[in-house]
Amino acid sequence: MAINVTQSPSTNTAAHSPVIWKFQFSAMGVLPVVKRMTYYLADSSSVRISEIYVWTPKDAADVLTVDVSDLVIPLVKTEINLPFLTPPVAIITATDATVVKGVKIMYTENDFNTATCINTPLTEQSTAVVNVWNNKLNLENNSFFSWTGGKTGALMNTLPSRMYWGYDTSPYIWFAGIGVVKITYYNTVGTNLGSATHNVSGANTAKYISLVHTDYGTTSLPYSALLEVNNGMGWKNYNISFDVCTCKGSYTGVMFLDPLGGRSFAPAKCESEGQVNRKGDTIVRYEPTLLKNGTSFVNSNAVDQIKLNIPLGDTIEDHDFARALVASPGHHLHKISTTGVKTLHKAILNSATISTVTKGKSTILDLTFELVDDKSGQRQDV
């Protein structure tokens, strides 16, 4: 007798999609002995992650479906404490150790004697290790992380082929698996101002790579850049143009958790709008007088609302980029002070609209954010 694994997740699978194994006994026990299976989720080193579960099948046709997505989602996250936040240390590329987690199911066949209540476990077994990534794949890209047909890795960012960045921005990209990433910066006449080739290795790991031009020794401001990515199946080029204006003293864009698992950057026009909204609760106190009690406002809080305009092209790739930004559960506004200090501010995206300009040749993504940092006053007054 044995337990058969009839279905397993892909070797590389999305944590935010179903992560399913199926099990079935090849035969049942003879009464008073019944067959049952104990199992738990473990990491790639067989360290137990979940509680131990027990399954007692009704018959040999019974199938156990185990979806561990709720268990693995808390195990993965995409790095947010990026090097540009702690100058002057300049780390161009680093491993994101938390964006992927290797897991497997440890399971044991048991003979349980219903007459004596004695359980006899047999040899513990395990499924193959599955790498769960901090991403959410949909119908159009559910095979995106399948390393087959020569594919050895994947860019974890949704990017259009043509992008417009500012000098004050801090864009990064993430690459999973094995591949090559090249970045080259040019001046107005096409002279190379600085470049680098990153050979990314490790089939079950991911690297984040800085695209901040000052990290590559540029001595003057670039006019354009070429980003080249090879995932084992050939090169994909991304052309970048730079806005000559500076956004110092303002928000330069938004960094967001991309559905593919990296953190993508959307540069904004410098002319951001802001307003302060008041939040709190109104209560009525006993014994009102001219000075105190009566109708009162408590738990007061000043909430900053920021409006950003993101310039985009008119291609399907631009639409996919906008959709990835809007679908993201995590947004951080990138701000640069008048002295050049860069910071990230967690924000909630409240609304997003797309408007077409220049006779359909480009689009503007209008975004409204609410900053989440606490700017409350005292809880109450008289």
Helix run count? 2
Number of strands: 25
Overall 3D shape: flat
CATH topology of the largest domain: Elongation Factor Tu (Ef-tu), domain 3
What's the alpha carbon Rg, rounded to whole Å? 27 Å
Q: Roughly how many Å apart are the termini?
A: 76 Å
> Beta-sheet strand percentage?
over 45%
Helical content class: under 10%
CATH class of the largest domain: Mainly Beta
Uncertain regions spanning at least 5 consecutive residues? none
Average pLDDT confidence is: 91
What is the second-level CATH architecture of the largest domain?
Answer: Beta Barrel
* Structural domain count: 3
Strand order of the largest sheet: 20-19-23-24-25-22-21
What is the ordering of alpha helices and beta strands? EEEEEEHEEEEEEEEEEEEEEEEHEEE
Could you characterize what this model shows?
With 382 residues, the chain is mainly beta. The chain folds into three domains: 3-76 and 99-133, Immunoglobulin-like, CATH 2.60.40; 147-244, Immunoglobulin-like (Sandwich), CATH 2.60.40; 246-382, Elongation Factor Tu (Ef-tu), domain 3 (Beta Barrel). The protein has two helices and 25 strands. It has helices at 69-72, 316-327, and strands at residues 3-7, 12-14, 20-25, 33-43, 53-55, 64-67, 93-95, 100-113, 118-126, 130-133, 153-155, 162-166, 172-177, 179-186, 192-200, 206-210, 224-230, 235-243, 250-257, 263-267, 273-284, 295-312, 331-336, 342-357, 362-371. The strands form five sheets. It has a seven-stranded antiparallel β-sheet. Strands 2, 4, 5, 8, 9 and 10 form a six-stranded mixed β-sheet that branches. Strand 23 (331-336) and strand 24 (342-357) form a beta hairpin. The radius of gyration is 27 Å and the shape is flat. The protein starts with a strand and ends in an 11-residue tail after the last strand.
